[in-house]
Amino acid sequence: MAQPIQIALIDDDEAVLDSLSLYFASQKVASTGFSAAPQFLSALGQDKRFDCIVSDVRMPGMSGIDLVRELKSRNVDVPIVLITGHGDVDMAVAAIKVGAADFIEKPFDESRLLASVRAAIEETRQRENADEQKDLPARFASLTARQRQVMELAVSGLSNKEIGARLDISPKTVENHRAWVMERIGARNIAELVRLAMKYDRRS
Amino acid sequence: MAQPIQIALIDDDEAVLDSLSLYFASQKVASTGFSAAPQFLSALGQDKRFDCIVSDVRMPGMSGIDLVRELKSRNVDVPIVLITGHGDVDMAVAAIKVGAADFIEKPFDESRLLASVRAAIEETRQRENADEQKDLPARFASLTARQRQVMELAVSGLSNKEIGARLDISPKTVENHRAWVMERIGARNIAELVRLAMKYDRRS
DNA sequence: TAACACCTAGGTGAAATTACCCAAGTCGAT
DNA sequence: ATCGACTTGGGTAATTTCACCTAGGTGTTA
């Protein structure tokens, strides 16, 4: 379960990028460097995943704070630790307000940065876990009889066509019920639905 | 969990069909009648599912024993209870040998038939459950590191593309690993894989 | 009566899965 | 050094899912 941590480093200063990635590597933490925020965003678009982002605040083009805003608006839930060489209180406040995980002023101890990164990742994980579990019974209870019926068959691995044959309704209708179930339970795919359904079963 | 039982009734004698379906209905057991085996088979082809088949032995065209053989050759694992008005020992032996669940001679008590059907369903369920559980640890252990890696990500709900991005391999390769995992674990779809993986996790 | 929720089912279009096929490279063992 | 297992990745095609949409029928409730 102790999957490796993958960090995105964003800084227009190559020297900082190199130095930080070297440090992270020495701490057995994988990192990928980007010299600008848009480059990082394009990596995200290619389904690359990162557990945490460490970004400079002041960069030509898109600033670190802009990046935070952009990710929030995309509903990308990756913690961002901002660092700066010209830190001031106002900027720090603005950064935290828009949702940055932390704001560190240079010069800083590298171990301080790593600690902040670790804390941010842990916090995000716990929040996601809490979100997933929250009101699980209530969410299952909110399903109608038909929806629960469809869900149980879907969770047991039947296709929409097979479920339709069993319940004697069209596969299309099954599809609709299924979509409702997904939305109400808050599952993004069948795998998640199965996990949540099994958790619920075990609890009740 | 006490899902309703669905029975297929096959007999060329409409009177028998009506009488039995009436009895089953009175016992809160759903049944569908077919006047010939091929009609039943075509319903199966349309993804209809039955927990048990109750079929006459002697019918024009395909006999009850023929039906048993046909289903075995198709690997359809539904128990079949055969009934006959002209039962003889040889036929009974032949029926059981090819894999019929039971063989009942007319005249019979309807409750006797239902008991036989229930027993057959129960036996099949237990066998299927045992098959599913058998050597689960061994099957998971037989996975290579890469396959287990792919499996864990797949089970957590990631698409092949996302898994590929994480492991830095092409989605196509992920697809191949996934197919191997499915075969080795013996899961027919993601839902089953998730269930088995969760069972395994809980046990270990 | 009107609003609302639910079940039903169809359409479109994009994305993903599944099931096959194939080949090339690595690596360890016989 | 050939064999087998594993990893990698490409192709093709069928099927399925997913995300939208519309829309009629039913039943309940304000």
Oligomeric state of shown chains: homodimer
Count of runs of 4 or more consecutive helical residues of chain A: 10
Helical amount of chain A: 55-70%
Structural class of chain A: alpha/beta
Which stretches of chain A of 5+ consecutive residues score pLDDT under 50?
A: none
Number of strands of chain A: 5
- Strand arrangement within the widest β-sheet of chain A reads 2-1-3-4-5
What fold name stands as the CATH topology of the largest domain in chain A?
Rossmann fold
Spatial separation of the terminal alpha carbons of chain A: 26 Å
For the record, what is the CATH homologous superfamily label of the largest domain in chain A? Response regulator
Secondary-structure element order of chain A, as H and E?
EHEHEHEHEHHHHHH
**Count of spatially separate domains of chain A:** 2
Calculate Rg of chain A over CA atoms: 22 Å
Largest sheet of chain A: 5 strands, parallel
Beta-strand share of residues of chain A: 5-15%
Greatest interface: A-B, 22 and 22 residues
What general form of chain A does the structure show?
Answer: elongated
Q: Averaged pLDDT of chain A, please?
A: 88
